[in-house]
Design brief:
Elements lengths: L19 E2 L32 E7 L5 H16 L3 E7 L6 H11 L5 E5 L3 H6 L12 H6 L2 H6 L1 E2 L2 E2 L5 E2 L2 E5 L1 H6 L14 H13 L6 E2 L10 H14 L19 H15 L3 E2 L14 E5 L3 H7 L5 E3 L15 E5 L6 H11 L2 H11 L2 E2 L2 H5 L11 H9 L10 H17 L4 H18 L9
Parallel strand pairs: 2-3, 2-4, 9-10, 9-11
Antiparallel strand pairs: 1-3, 4-13, 5-6, 7-14, 8-11, 8-12
Helix pairs in contact: 1-12, 8-9, 8-15, 9-15, 15-16
Amino acid sequence: MTLLRRKPLQGRAFLAGVLCAALLAAGCGGGGDDGKRSRTRADTTCDGKLKGTTDITVWFHAGPSGELGTLRAQVKDFNAAQKAVRVELITLPEERPYTDLVDSAAASGDLPDLLDFDGPNLYNYAWSGKLKPIDSCVPDSVKNDLLPSIREQGTYEGRLWGVGTFDSGLGLYVRPSVLKKAGIRVPSGPGDAWTAAELTGILHKLRKQGYERPLDLRLNYSVPGQEWNTYGFAPAVWSAGGDLIDPRTHRTADGFLNSPEAVRALTTMQSWAKEGLIDPDKDDKAFVAGRSPLSWVGHWMYPDNTKAFPGDVKIVPLPDFGKGTVTGMGSWQWGVTTGATDGDAVWRFLTYLLKPDQIHRMTVANGAIPATNSAVRISPSFAEGGPEHLFIEQLRTVARPRSQTPAYPAVTVAFSKAFAKIVVDLAPVKPALDQAVREIDKDLADHQGYPSGGP
């Protein structure tokens, strides 16, 4: 990736030799001052006024991709359309983990005005003082248009700290023709999901139909400590009635992550692995190559899966482990950092990115789920009657955010490692979860339980 290096904006320090700066002209439209603003106590991020021309810096996580190309074009269009706010887009180098660069910048006072970050990191960023609350910036008209999952993902301690232009969703991709031949019913929606026991029977039926390993769990993503294991499979724990941490106090994982309900859910999943019903998916083609007619994965696989089997792919809910089907949610969000010089200028740019046509522009590029009701209506695949509408229905009804605690980075690493031990290495379930609990509770103790108000 070749990036045009430009002189830093006056008065702004950057991580010299670390950041890969690309100044891109950007496009704005709209002000964001329409509608009544919601204000919360001590939230002065926006006052509704812009003073002269304001330069803002924006950090983005991606390497070369449809997302990055689209955002570059949006920045260019925004800058060309108005003169009140000028955006400089900076993409960070891929050699170091993005979160490490954010933490380093925060420590040295070099955060940008607008930061993009993976949604569940919001709670730690808000608690540790990296972000400003944005209720004072967001008009009710915009807030009410957001999908409920977007609002929930962006909320910490009763205040809104982040907003995304797209969301995510999980489901089981199935081949209806294969299920029909085997006499297997196809669920119609979240209220009609297969039970976990029913799915176990279905897998055995499909094996008899010649599919030796009928279930794809995208185990090629299943790196211990990485986010797929938590994003993809925490819903099984939630569906069973367990949790990753005490959802009320967030002070311990003991009795939740290692609860009988969590153990039961992961024991069921391990049984599928022990019986050889899960494809290891080492070539990333278990579903598209036709080996596994069921694939537990997210929205991003819709294009590849439907290309492989035109007219023979349907998305159904994840199995019900006892308390109803649950889906994951949450994707990359935008937040105004504590280093931002003018929250109103940042919000002016975000207002542009949240326009229905701009959300549609981005989600066409990355295949993600539009973040607003108005954008869903102009997105045929996700709108009522569209082939991906289940994702919208789930985000409105059965989606759960990952644990909304500043301890989330420790929670996800511990759970991710435990899941890999259980389903990939076939380690005993309860001891693996007990170890994860000890790791999470140690992090909580090390941070005095993450007291309200920050460190």
